[in-house]
Amino acid sequence: MDATVVSPRSWSAGTEVLLRGETQTLRILDQTQPPQVLLGEERIPVRDAHANLRPMIQAWLQQLAKRELPPRVAELAAQHQLKVGRITIRNQSTRWGSCSSRGSLSLNWRLIQTPDRVRDYIILHELMHLREMNHSPRFWSTWKKPAPTGKNPNAGLKSMALNLDFDLWTLSSRPHLISHENPRPTLYSYNTVERLLRGDFYHTVDWQDVAAELTRFPKDWPLIGIGTTNWFKRNGETIVQGNVAHPRVFWSDPEGDTPMQIIDLEVQHPSPSGPELISPSLATPSTQAAYPFLAVAVCQPETLRHWECPATDNVHLWIQETLARENIGLAAVQIQGPCTHLRFASAFYLPLEGLKLVDGYNAKNNLKLASHEAGTWNIGGIYAANPTLQNIISVEGLPLHLHGYEESSRLGGHIIQIQTHGLSVRVWPLKDLVMQLHNLDVAWQPIRNLALKP
Asked: CA-CA distance, 126 to 123, in Å (whole number)?
């Protein structure tokens, strides 16, 4: 299982590269036009045989993985009488694969470099999550496939990861303080609001990676989340609801058929009548939602606190004062009930050079602003009392960050102000904050040329 060659940053003739578990030496055929590189028996056309071959070889390997891995998934799924949904091949930085609660599998393209037994072990591992979406003893009892390297497959996978220049430390080697056996209510923050507002649209996460994190929690634990996408000039506002077993990922579309309409990103696609969906990063496909900021709270049901908010012109302030009196430092908040007046926004243009919200959420050149009179609203968000945490989930001085929608019109977004004659507030205190930034190994991410985009 263990390989002996660690991939250098730059590849050239003589570099040893793993393909299907075998170490192959790159050789150049200069006589062909265009020049070709031999990787084992494979001939790979390249633009410049004397440049760094790594980007060109890796791009070819990714395409090979897209051709070979899905048929193998289908074959193994059929053998085990499993029905798999969408299969995607991606460039994950911290995991080999993941399985969503909707039956979709996401696999790392580097599996094409591993031995067949390792590839099949990982595919089967993800397929078995179609039966059990966690790592409980019941999950391990669902299959008898031997681990590729004996009793501790993670040790071998980590060694393989290092030889593929693929950091799996956060997956295989960190202490599992958060596990199915020892779950703690946790806030996962992927990037921060501060970095987002400084123009970081490149260190993103997609929902399949988030769903994989959630498998370590009990299925009935509620989810509350907020975020935005990196779709250029159509960022919108993300709303996460549901529970671990059945997450819901909603999005307020600032430029759809009906501005600020809420759609379910897992089952619906943004309206084609709006601006073209464009990711500023070449590393993420424009058709798939990528989140430059996403905060998802995994809540422990037993810790729920239920309050009734009285009539007030400032629900934000009432909640913040109540949380302060209760000495709660970090929490997920859900608000449900009638609102007499509500102001909300949806980002349609978060500039790549950054945005300063000096006047709060009132930047008309960047946010679609709207108000709504009497209606029943479903709102969720995150509260952080400590100013040092506020820049992670909000902006300093605004400890409560809320997103939501009106239930009948299905309009919504970032919630600016709420007035009510009375509504229900549910609060789940959170013990831990896990902040993740992906793909930090590359100093400059490849950027799409947006100069000619409307």
From this structure: 5
